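Give me the 3D structure for GNAT family N-acetyltransferase.
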Amino acid sequence: MNLNWYYKHFRNLSTTELYQILQLRCEVFIVEQNCPFQDLDDKDFKCHHLMGFDTETQQIVAYTRIVPPGLSYEEASIGRVVTSPRVRKYGVGKELMRNSIELAEELYGSSIKIGAQLYLKGFYESFGFVQTSEIYLEDGIEHIEMLKD
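Predicted structure for GNAT family N-acetyltransferase (149 residues):
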């Protein structure tokens, strides 16, 4: 699998990129996880968007938004972490998180706080995140807050 990684601030996204991002987020967060929720939360405008672009299919297949400090948490954050079901067995999720952490540190040079789905706790721990909250429900799914210093 050959992916090109790039990021842009919201104001620099093309309409095609924005469409593919929203399509991927909808495919996974709303349809696959069977979780109707308001994905468009006005934070996208202020964020950088990291995209993994499959050169064969010409599609964005991995994505995160890098949230500046003070918008979701006091710290910078990585949110809307998503990979297409078609690429999950190839280690794309790990590559996505490594690139996201590197980008967040490059942009903001601070700690990173995330709201993680509980079943992914071990995945995020493998990148140095530690649980900092009790379990809470968000859109009917168990979550925890995690911090990487």
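The chain has three helices and eight strands. Let me know if you want a second pass.
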